[in-house]
TrEMBL record:
This is SDR family oxidoreductase. It comes from Amycolatopsis acididurans. Pfam families: Epimerase (PF01370). Residues 3-217 form the NAD-dependent epimerase/dehydratase domain. InterPro entries: Epimerase_deHydtase (IPR001509), NAD(P)-bd_dom_sf (IPR036291), NAD(P)-dependent_oxidoreduct (IPR051783). CDD domains: SDR_a7.
Length: 297
């Protein structure tokens, strides 16, 4: 299968490309710069130059491929604009793939369901306290993607947890804890620190993208969740030990604009995904990776 991958040189995409190629797929990677293009070609893929704000390039990539996997996201300070750009890109893919039977897989986030584990059956936006935030509005893009199943698109939403991690690289939400600890001199958690964050290793996540590409039917939701919920206090205590800093409770404002999100209990399950696709995470947990130390600056 020929697969067009956005974000092919990014944290997930750079690992997804070799995962797909090793399984026998051909990859066309979107690259915005010379440096990104080199990463893509070094991984064994071909390159399409352009970015998410160029609809003609996105349409050309979709037309050339049998499937599209969209994992790019612009992590700029203007989150609202980044979310809007993502929505426009996905809508461009949707229009290009309508009536073709081709696959469209997008990365999204696990929903927050107060009082219990979020599952694959939960709506991307219903009852989610993040739904009205700029980042939470990504759920609307996920809903749009799933609805493409009714227009002959094999649409799949891969929900990623709060911390997608690998040792010595990024740790998702936990990277925010590390950066704040270094800046303030205290490894902090909010309140009693019992709020839970789900997590998955990068390599386990990309394997699930491949399995979903190969097996998932139209309108499928999968959860790339290995750790259902690590308590914030446990994460802060490990980070504090590794950085040689004290651990303490702080108000949500200590973490700035993201503090309100950090304060939420947001565990998630992947039980349905594991049963349906035979996906079994095998790589280190977030706490195991954090205990190894040597955090990147």
């Amino acid at each position: 299968m020929k697969v067009f991958v956005t974000g092919a040189s990014g944290g997930i995409g750079s690992l997804l490309v070799p995962e797909l190629i090793s399984a026998g797929h051909e990859v066309l990677g979107l690259a915005r710069s010379d440096a990104s293009a080199k990463k893509v070609t070094d991984a064994g893929a071909s390159v399409l130059r352009g970015d998410l704000t160029d609809p003609e390039t996105l349409r050309a990539g979709a037309a050339e491929a049998d499937a599209v996997i969209h994992v790019a996201f612009n992590h700029s300070p203007d989150i609202a604009q980044s979310v809007a750009d993502e929505a426009t890109a996905v809508e461009t893919f949707g229009a290009a793939l309508e009536g073709t039977g081709k696959a469209l897989l997008i990365a999204s986030g696990t929903p927050i369901v107060p009082g219990r584990l979020a599952t694959e059956d939960d709506s991307p936006v219903a009852d989610d306290p993040m739904a009205k935030s700029p980042l939470g509005r990504r759920g609307l893009t996920a809903q749009y993607t799933l609805a493409l199943a009714g227009k002959d698109v094999r649409s799949v939403v891969v929900r990623l947890p709060r911390s997608v991690h690998s040792r010595g690289h990024r740790y998702g939400f936990a990277s925010g804890l590390i950066a704040t600890a270094r800046r303030t001199g205290v490894s902090a958690y909010i309140g009693d620190g019992t709020q839970r964050w789900p997590a998955v290793h990068h390599l386990d996540a990309v394997r699930l993208f491949r399995l979903a590409l190969e097996q998932a039917g139209p309108g499928t939701v999968v959860h790339a969740v290995a750790d259902e919920g690590d308590p914030m206090r446990d994460l802060a205590e490990v980070i504090g030990r590794e950085l040689g800093l004290p651990t303490d409770s702080v108000p949500a404002e200590h973490f700035g604009p993201v503090g309100a999100v950090y304060a939420l209990d947001q565990p998630a399950s992947a039980e349905l995904t594991r049963k349906k696709f035979g996906w079994l995470p095998t790589h280190p947990s977030l706490l195991e990776d954090l205990k190894a130390g040597n955090y990147p600056e």
